Structures are given as structure tokens and as C-alpha cells.
Amino acid sequence: MKALACFLAVCSSAILCLAVMPGAASALSDAEYKKMLASSPEFASADKRLNTAWGALRKAVSGERIEQYRKFQRR
């Protein structure tokens, strides 16, 4: 159940990131990423929450399961 909660947090954060940057590509270059972090407090906050959620998920589930979640997230 804890893994599911972590997964939902990751997905929610990812959706928030997409809402903050409508129309943006799914992958940013390093320069674009740094620019977004510096210019958008909302993006920086969502990025921090997403990284925190992924960290919690990595601690809660096996490596194989992490890969399943990554594939699902990238759909």
C-alpha cells in the first residue's frame, strides 16, 4: 500500500509538472531544465516534489518494480 501511495505521488507530481509547462516537450535539455528551475518557482517546487516521491518509491519497492513504474509514467 505504501508503494502505491508513493507511485500516486510520483504521477501527481508529473502531472503538475506538465500543467506548469503546457506545450513543452516531455524531455528538456540540461540548459532548458536549468532555465526552468531558475525562472519558475512552480517548476522548481514540482521538480523537488517529484524527486522526493521517486526517492521514497525507490526505498519502498524493488528495482524491477521501479522500471515498471518508469515505463508506465513515460506512456
Give a description of the structure.
With 75 residues, the protein is mainly α. It has one domain (2-22, 42-73). It contains four helices and no strands. The chain has helices at 2-20, 30-39, 41-60, 63-73. The radius of gyration is 13 Å and the shape is elongated.
Shape summary: elongated
User: What is the helix fraction of residues, given as a range?
Assistant: over 70%
Binned strand content? under 5%
The averaged pLDDT comes out at 79
Rg over CA atoms, rounded to whole Å, is 13 Å
| Biggest beta sheet attributes | none
Question: What is the topology?
Answer:
Elements: H1 2-20, H2 30-39, H3 41-60, H4 63-73
Helix pairs in contact: 1-3, 2-3
Quick rundown:
This protein is mainly α. The chain has helices at residues 2-20, 30-39, 41-60, 63-73.
Question: Tags for this entry?
Answer:
75 residues; elongated; mainly alpha
